[in-house]
Amino acid sequence: MIKLGLGVIDVPEPEGGSTYSVGMDLEKRYGLFSMFYNFREKEISELIAKDAAIGLEMMLKGESVDIASVFAVSSEEITDKMHNFITNQEVEKVAAMYGERGIPTQAALDGTSYRFEKGVTAKRWIKGKRGGGKAVKKRNPRPSFIYSGVFEASLKAEIK
């Protein structure tokens, strides 16, 4: 049996806590990961089925099959789709379609964000290259769930 895990690489958030705790909170409050899965279920199933067929073909040829390697392509594509779900504001569109409350978030509407100084980006933060930053308020509206960029950059789909 294979399992799809939608979540994050657990790293510290710039203002405390971790991406894991943020992800758990966002799932509990908004159903973020469930909403993504429900919206993209068919595409996700097709990606997994394609990789499963490749793995089955390898097994029939007598080759050794490592689940993580077989499903690496679909895992990466699902991760990219999760990333786009947030950054391209698909989550706001889906929430509106289903009447979900609280999305877009008030912080997104206010444009509240955490900006990094000295060229430290969210991806560098995840890799352990810390740096200073400052809170910036009252800017243009931004996508929901991207306050520092660390959560969004840490999104991960994994098939086991």
What secondary-structure arrangement, pairings included, does this model have?
Elements: E1 4-8, H1 19-30, H2 32-60, H3 67-70, H4 72-87, H5 90-98, H6 106-110, E2 113-116, H7 122-126, E3 133-136, H8 150-153, E4 155-159
Antiparallel strand pairs: 1-4, 2-3
Helix pairs in contact: 1-2, 2-4
Written description of the protein model:
The chain is mainly alpha-helical. The chain has helices at residues 19-30, 32-60, 67-70, 72-87, 90-98, 106-110, 122-126, 150-153, and strands spanning 4-8, 113-116, 133-136, 155-159. The strands form 2 sheets. It has a two-stranded antiparallel sheet. The protein has a two-stranded antiparallel ribbon with strand order 2-3. It is elongated and about 55 Å long. The mean pLDDT is 86.
Rounded to the nearest angstrom, the distance between the terminal CA atoms is 8 Å
The shape, in one word, is elongated
String of helices and strands: EHHHHHHEHEHE
What is the total tally of β strands? 4
What is the SS-derived class?
Answer: mainly alpha
Biggest sheet, spatial arrangement of strands:
1-4
**Main sheet attributes: strand count, strand direction, barrel closure:** 2 strands, antiparallel
List the uncertain runs: none
Radius of gyration over C-alpha positions, nearest whole angstrom: 18 Å
Strand content: 5-15%
Number of helices: 8
Determine the fraction of residues in helical runs and give it as a percent range: 40-55%
Average pLDDT value? 86
